[in-house]
Write a structure and sequence with these properties.
By secondary structure, the protein is an alpha+beta fold. It is built from three helices and eight strands; from the N terminus they run ααββαββββββ. It has a single domain, classed as Cathepsin B, Chain A. Strands 3-8-4-5-6-7 form a six-stranded antiparallel beta sheet, with helices on one face. Strands 1-2 form a two-stranded antiparallel sheet. Helix 1 packs across helix 2.
Length: 151
């Protein structure tokens, strides 16, 4: 059974999702990302009053997450655009709630015809498993092959 991992960095959702899928800790995923030269890198975000501030962050795209999964010997398919949860036809990584600045939030989607669920690495989300699909808008899907031992 996959266990939820929380992101320890503001923009570490992708790393936490890789940690969940691989059954490793968040710190190990961050170390792997550094070894693969994935981050951290500077980015800008909006703060109160419309100010823009630069920070270091772990903004990850599907290609980078797939590289990390490959190193960890976890199979993944090509990224594709989706507009609804029904388009996510298997287990995988899903980018949700895309913003105008081109950023999004990564979650792990566990496809089950009876009871699909999402593992969200955001520490502000209280429940480990989410089923409030109306509040999460999927935009990108990366299918992942889960090993039976990790399910």
């Amino acid at each position: 059974m996959l266990q939820r991992r929380l992101q320890h960095d503001r923009t570490g959702c992708g790393l936490a999702c890789v940690a969940m899928l691989a059954g490793i800790g968040y710190a190990q995923a961050r170390t792997l990302a550094r070894a693969l030269a994935i981050g951290p890198r500077p980015y800008r975000y909006r703060a109160g009053g419309g100010l823009r501030t630069a920070r270091e962050g772990w903004l990850t795209d599907a290609r980078q997450l797939r590289r990390m999964l490959a190193v960890l010997r976890i199979g993944s398919g090509g990224e594709r655009a989706v507009s609804a949860w029904r388009d996510c036809d298997g287990d995988g990584l899903v980018a949700i709630n895309a913003r105008a600045d081109g950023t999004w939030h990564w979650v792990v989607y566990l496809h089950d015809p009876v009871s699909p669920r999402v593992l969200d690495p955001n520490p502000r989300v209280r429940r480990g498993e989410r089923r409030d699909f109306g509040r999460m808008r999927p935009v990108r899907f990366v299918p992942v092959t889960l090993h039976e031992a990790s399910m």
